[in-house]
Amino acid sequence: MDLTVIGYWGAYPDKNEATSGYLLEHKGSKILLDCGSGVLSKLQNYTTLEELDAVVITHLHADHMADVYSLEFATLISMQLGRRLKPLEVYVYYKDSARLDFCYPQYVNVHQITPQSVVTVGELTLEFSENIHEVPCCAVKVISGEGKSLVYSGDTGYCQEIIDFSWGVDVLVLESSFYNWQKGLNHGHLTAGEAGQIAAIAQPGRLILTHLPHYDDHQQLVLEASVHYNGEIQLAYCGMKLTI
Hints:
Layout: E1 2-7, E2 21-26, E3 29-33, H1 39-43, E4 54-57, H2 62-65, H3 68-80, E5 88-93, E6 108-113, E7 118-121, E8 124-130, E9 138-143, E10 149-152, H4 160-166, E11 171-175, H5 192-202, E12 206-210, H6 219-226, E13 232-235, E14 241-243
Parallel strand pairs: 3-4, 4-5, 5-6, 10-11, 11-12, 12-13
Antiparallel strand pairs: 1-2, 1-14, 2-3, 7-8, 8-9, 9-10
């Protein structure tokens, strides 16, 4: 199972980069986790849009789904031109369907996901857990047929659910929106220290800090997380590749 970080910024993309977007590939299957601002353009450096099997949207904040409607239109064009032979499967964590603006059901199959959902794409199995956030939001666990596992947190505050959900996974891609000095400013996001505390309990094989702020030294985030978690910690960056 291969992971490529398409975008990792919180709130808005930096110049020539993107907010949340993560491409997973396994034995020909391709899944995009979140499709934030700038992701659609950057994604095409690593795969054609026609090759995507599925997209998972963890919640309806723009930095996680701003490009998904453009992707819908790209799918329409690809199918009309015969470049794509089947609709794109889109899985969205939401509670109010009125907030969704998909227009072309013949080209995009939109599915509501819940904490009880289990999705299979090729030999990958996807499970979900609800987070603490300003709007309904989920974390995603991806398990390969060989038993390798990854959890992508989406956006979350500190909660027992994300700890339990992430326990023992090979890679934990965990948001780190704030520095420790900002603790308490937003209960729907994590400080780096809280991310380290989660990893210290869940004990993933590797911790990737993502959804990063646009200020100060990101190496400080690693230092603050490492106070609690003594495993490998890396900062996400556009184009980062991992084999799990």
